[in-house]
Amino acid sequence: MWQHGIKHVGLSGIVLGGLLIMAVLAGCSGDDGQASRARRTPEVRVMEIVPQKIDLTTELVGRTSAFRKAEVRPQVNGILLKRLFTEGGEVREGEPLYLIDPAPYEAELESAQAALARAEANVEPARLRARRYKSLLAEKAVSQQEYDDAQATYRQCLAEVAVCRAAVKTAKIQLAYTNVLAPVSGRIGKSSVTAGALVTANQAEPLASIQQLDPIYVDVTQSSLELLRLRELLSAGRLERSGESRAVVRLRLENEKMYPHTGTLQFTDITVDDSTGAVGLRAIFPNPDKLLLPGMYVRAILNEGVDERALLVPQLAVSRDPRGQASVFVLGEGNVAEFRPVTVGSMVGRFWQITDGLKPGEKVIVEGFQNVRNGMPVRVRAENGAAGGGSPAGGD
Questions:
Q1: Which fold has domain 43-53+309-389?
Q2: Over the stretch 363-390, which tens digit does the pLDDT of each residue have?
Q3: What distance in Å separates the CA atoms of residue 321 and residue 332, rounded to the nearest whole number?
Q4: pTM of the prediction?
């Protein structure tokens, strides 16, 4: 009987131990499930949207071009005797640049002047003869035909004088063209010819080029849609203007430094490119120090105005679908991610200005949203931060 009791107790212990093991295993399984679900919940960082004051600007990419550019070409044929300027220097309008051998043209001028003197010498006898024939015709001493011939000879002599005077004028012009003058003021480039070269009138290759650099143009491109928006801002008075009621433009140079002078935007030469849909705009800048040279890459900056309550979101937090629609994920109640389409405005540093779709105080997911779907629970990794400091709070 004692042995039977031992067997009974042993069997009960085995059963009890099995139940305890099953309970422990069940508890471990629950803990593992909760840990697995926690691991599957995306960890994100959020930023609270706080209204702030910002200056709105638009940057347009472009290049500089000369205010005036003139190619110097000879207008007469001849041998080049001298170059009268320093390459790369400043020249003034009307300043002599080259000297072409003037000897042939001096001879032509002297010949034309001699022909004029001869023609003028023939005028007076013809005039006197015509006058005498007029009185003789009244006395019937000469015929009407003789009188008409005398008058015609006199008029021919006058016409010959006019022709010779024109020839003298042409010869003087040709002689003056042997001095090749600067057509505009500006900086002259290198010379394509040297003394002793034969040049021809209106040849294809210019002798040199002159560019006026003060003021200087900045040619930029912009989409036609953006151009319409800029025009609306200009009409509404939101763009900063100069005294001539034109939009003020600032320049950022290739070295990221700001150009010290401001310019004005001119809505000229606005033809839409059929292939790109871009529009050419032109701004004009003072260039007294000749810091800007033609062909330099620059960025023109226009001040659009001030937004007193702008909502900014980091650019990395904004996604776009194939149609270009921008969207963000907002942290909703119960730490649930909500998909939110938004309207994007201007770029402010590394932030986008949000003009529609968000409200002050809402929290935007700025990190970890790649694995987030609409309505999915998320775990917030850090406290909310404002956009005004340039980076969300709790960042690295």
A1: 2.40.420
A2: 999 988 888 888 899 988 755 444 443 4
A3: 22
A4: 0.61
